[in-house]
Amino acid sequence: MSSATSPSDAHATQGTRRDFIVLSASAMAAVGGAACIWPFVSSMNPSADVLALASTEVNLAPIAQGQEIKVMWRGKPVFIRHRTAKDIEEARAVSLDDLPDPQEDAERVKEGKEQWLVMVGVCTHLGCVPLGNHAGDYEGWFCPCHGSHYDTAGRIRRGPAPTNLLVPDYEFTSDTSIKIG
Fold first, then answer.
1. HSE on the CB side for 133, CA within 13 Å?
2. CA angle (31 as vertex; 30, 33 as ends), nearest 5
3. Which CATH class is domain 50-180?
């Protein structure tokens, strides 16, 4: 008996080698393609500075009653007002029938923290930034660009603005601190 392989055995070995080479080349091409595409897909993720703006924490302790501050969140101004008892009383006394965009004062503040009003400071008419610190006819905010007047709850009272100032998602992290976003 000879140890030589038959032609059919040689063909079977050749087919196995060819299959292995094709499979290996295909796997390498797939890995190489994924390695080339990954930077493009990764570039679509938000950058670190954008992620840092996704939420912001604000210390409320230095804001005196009746005072208002403006902070930036996601590139927009946010008004935070420490309302007085008079501000809250005036906001609650308004009839919903008198409002172009009816919304109760209680819907715009957190329960138990009615003295804190947090709103995005962008006029809902054309995106201007209204003046604060008890401006306008209703002691709230006034947009001088087109004459929109907002009350002490940030609700539109007069002017071309179609809706109230937006209240962002926020939560109290302590009695003197909030997290916006």
1. 5
2. 65
3. mainly beta
Give the active site residue among 125, 134, 146, 149.
146
8-state DSSP, 75: T
Indicate if 146 belongs to the active site.
yes
Q: What is the pTM of this model?
A: 0.69
Instruction: Tell me which residue of 122, 117, 121, 123 sits closest to 105, measured CA to CA.
Output: 117
pLDDT in tens, 49-66: 766 667 889 999 999 999
- The type of residue at 176 is T
Residues 6+ apart with CB under 8 A from 100: 156, 157, 162
- Give the angle subtended at the CA of 19 by the CAs of 16 and 20, to the nearest 5°: 85
3-state secondary structure (DSSP) of residue 101: coil
Q: Locate 71 and state its tokens.
A: 């902070």
Residue type (1 letter), 106: A
Q: Where are the domains of the chain?
A: 1-45, 50-180
For the stretch 93-148, pLDDT in tens is 999 998 999 999 999 999 999 999 999 999 888 888 888 887 878 888 898 888 89
The helix/strand/coil state of 179 is: strand
